[in-house]
Specification:
This is Cobalt transporter. The chain is mostly helical. It is built from nine helices and two strands, in the order ααααββααααα. It folds into two domains: 146 residues, no CATH class; 81 residues, no CATH class. A two-stranded antiparallel ribbon has the order 1-2. A hairpin with a 4-residue loop joins strand 1 and strand 2.
Length: 254
């Protein structure tokens, strides 16, 4: 279980700002680095790490479900029709596969996958409330922090409401399973109540915050969640900066 997983526990206890910096530095580093191989090396490391964290299956499905279609699409567009193609590696008859376009497509694909997988691990190991608390403790305006938190919570809240409404309909004898048409007929009537209830919840949360003095100026706000900064956070932030510097040096050295 995740609770007994030491690696998951270590990543779970990292400062959310540290994890965000790692996500951005790895993705931007892949963009800066001239070769696509760095992205795929990082993907292998991320995949191994995800298995140690207990989320390897989901990360693998994410890579296969998103990575393969996107890579094939990019290879088709860039590999066959990129104006940068000068070295032909395969003649397919209707078009020629170029080396430059192929490498560029692989670089874009690997960069997207690094961003996607690292951000997934970040979301999987960090609570939204902790992320916003860390941002506000770093100096972010409380109102902007609330907007970020509300945006992050929209999808999970709507999913919970849909599940509750579906269970209520099923208890009343409404068919919510079966063929695609049956599920579509059962799902379409849910859209109105879910959207309206979400808007009502947002209004009620706003009124609750106002009654608690959320907009009062001239005072120092407090937070229920306190995010700590450990020596490991300092080390990983330094590693992120070092990684970006190495990528920049390799990029401009060539």
């Amino acid at each position: 279980m995740k609770k007994d997983n030491k690696i998951y526990g270590f990543i779970r206890e990292l400062n959310p700002i540290t994890k965000l910096i790692l996500v951005l530095s790895l993705g931007i580093g892949c963009m800066i680095y001239p070769s696509s191989f760095l992205g795929y090396y990082l993907l292998v490391i991320i995949l191994i790490l995800s298995f140690f964290m207990g989320t390897g299956r989901k990360v693998s499905l994410l890579i296969l479900g998103f990575g393969i279609p996107v890579t094939l699409m990019l290879l088709f567009i860039q590999g066959l029709y990129s104006p940068k193609n000068t070295i032909i590696i395969a003649d397919l008859g209707f078009a020629s596969l170029g080396l430059e376009g192929t490498m560029y497509a692989l670089k874009i694909s690997s960069t997207l996958l690094v961003f996607l997988t690292t951000f997934y691990l970040f979301l999987n190991s960090t609570k939204n409330s902790e992320t916003v608390a860390a941002l506000t403790q770093s100096g972010l305006n409380m109102k902007i922090g609330y907007l970020i938190l509300a945006s992050l919570n929209v999808v999970p809240q709507m999913q919970r409401k849909v599940k509750i409404i579906q269970e209520a309909q099923e208890s009343r004898g409404v068919e919510v399973t079966g063929s695609f048409l049956q599920r579509a007929k059962a799902f379409l009537p849910l859209i109105g109540p879910v959207v309206l209830s979400s808007l009502t919840d947002a209004q009620e949360r706003g009124m609750t915050l106002e009654t608690r003095g959320f907009s009062i100026k001239g005072i120092k706000p407090t937070t229920l969640i306190e995010v700590k900064h450990k020596p490991s956070d300092t080390f990983l932030k330094g590693f992120s900066i070092f990684f970006l510097l190495i990528c920049l040096i390799v990029r401009f050295w060539n």
